[in-house]
């Protein structure tokens, strides 16, 4: 039992403990819902059942090579004679991203001529004018104002609720970089991180989410056949979380990856 003089100090200690515990609970990272390591030479989800199917446009399928984070990375190539084609991609079963989520992946993009204005990284769609998520690279602009930028779009029935981009030169050809996008339904904010650092941000406004949950893809714009741009290069350690990672959690995710880039074949 505490004396009358000890009670104020004891009460302060109790309140401090409660506050510290609450902070620890709120700081817990969102749940990792999908994790594609590619370490078993497939596109299987290591934490769930969202396994992907490797596909090609009437040609070879994506292959595997030495990875950045684990043993292997997914490798996208194009025939030597190709000028523009649908490309290699990965299709996944329907998944409900929810009102807030985090997407994180490592890429090592390769140049492709002629340049594609929009190079898809991760997308989902309900139809030609009813897309949900687009994460892509923008590599060409007549004025050079969007050269090598990263873009994220979130919309429904042709309406953009979020369209966020980075400044030019956000990535370099032939070099690994980690791209992370967080969406926060409470703050209505979208943040793009490159190598653990904020590189672009914007607002989502009030989002109207589609009633149906479409499939999602790596390296393809399935809803817009005319967008026959392709991603060439390597992709590794694709993660989808159930909520928005904090800036500190994104930095931690980047720092725990290997410091040196492995040479890819």
Kindly describe this structure:
With 265 residues, the protein is mainly beta. It has one domain (30-255): Jelly Rolls. It contains two helices and 15 strands. A hairpin with a 5-residue loop joins strand 3 (63-66) and strand 4 (72-76). The model is unreliable at 20-26 and 260-265 (pLDDT under 50).
N-to-C CA distance: 70 Å
- The number of E-state strands comes to 15
In the CATH hierarchy, what is the class? Mainly Beta
Helix content: 10-25%
- Average pLDDT works out at 79
Q: Compute the gyration radius: what is it?
A: 21 Å
Can you summarize the main beta sheet? 8 strands, antiparallel
Number of domains: 1
H/E series, N to C? HEEEEEEEEEEEEEEEH
Please tell me the CATH architecture by its name: Sandwich
Coarse shape: globular
Detail the poorly predicted runs.
Answer: 20-26, 260-265
**Topology-level CATH name:** Jelly Rolls
Write a brief caption for the model.
By secondary structure, this protein is mainly beta. The chain is built from two helices and 15 strands. Helices cover 11% and strands 35% of the residues.
